[in-house]
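pinning this so it doesn't scroll away 📌
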Amino acid sequence: MKLHRIEGYIQDIWLVEESWGLMLLDGASRADVGTICDFINKQLHRPLNDLKIVVVTHMHPDHAGGARALRQVCKAQIVSANVPGQWYRGIDGLLMHLTDILLAHWVAGRMRKRRRLIWYSPYITPDIALNDGDSIPGFEQWKVLFTQGHTDRDLTLWHQPSNRVYVADLMVKVKQRFIPPYPVFYPNRYKASLQRVRHLSPTSILLAHGGEVRLTAEDFDYLENKAPERPATHWRSVKTKLARIFGLQATSN
């Protein structure tokens, strides 16, 4: 098994290479589709239909945005968690989808990336929906683990022979520290997910934002201490800011 790290638009892209096929550990963003196809053709010298599996760990723009296009172009199958319903459902979901795209553009700006088209459908129907602990068809050395908290359908991908794990956005690396992502919708699930990965004692952890890393016990302790006690979500952030604004106005009056 070879593992390739590709620089994506705003995140790292991880591509598994086996003699019989290729697997993306996440769906990347819509802006990354050309980059992925060029890497397969020009760097690996393989046909696009060698991409057999695209995993979608959760529905955010840099993890699901390219999946549908890659299914169409490469004839790959989309794998995701067997969780009922769509993440971006209802009016609230559509507003959240728009907010997440705006946040992705903001991150790109902070990274000094030029503005790219990253719009994608908020709805996805996987070809294969897996349960916690299932192996990925065709890549049976990889297991999916439910590590929810960031959303209700987050997946960690565990390569058992090497004991390496891809955790998507379970944690992000900022200024040499590992911190929880934003948002965290389910704090209790999030803390349980951290414990689950910690108990695996992985040889290394693959991040969507931070490369391949090794966490010490101190790093995990810091992460757990920084984990929110209450949901840290878009709407709560808006309400907090509004409360501060109106609170200041009331004080000044």
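📌 and the second one:
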Amino acid sequence: MKRRIILTGAFIGMLAIILGAFGAHLLKKYLAVEQLVTFETGVRYQMYHAFFLLFLSTRKELTPKALKTIYNLTVAGVILFSGSIYLLATKNLTLFDSKIIVFATPVGGFLLILAWLGLFVSILKQKS
């Protein structure tokens, strides 16, 4: 499981760098400043959670069940939160109907909060 977490964290981080460069160099020609700021928010939160996954992989005190739950919440949260932000920020460049994913951003954000809460509760439950 820890190998999977490290690989996922590394992949999500790499993808955040690629998307950040894509936004900074290519999309700035086609998007309004507000849309670029929105896109960058997706990149920033994706990178935060890449680091979170790498940190998570170092935690020896977490049970396998807690580790898997936090991992799944984080990955699903990044996909829904950052993914929907990318689609919403670039909606005028595609034929994608943004009404389809209107709830994906807050649901993704909630999953990310649950992942952090899962880590907090797991550590809190441990005896010092």
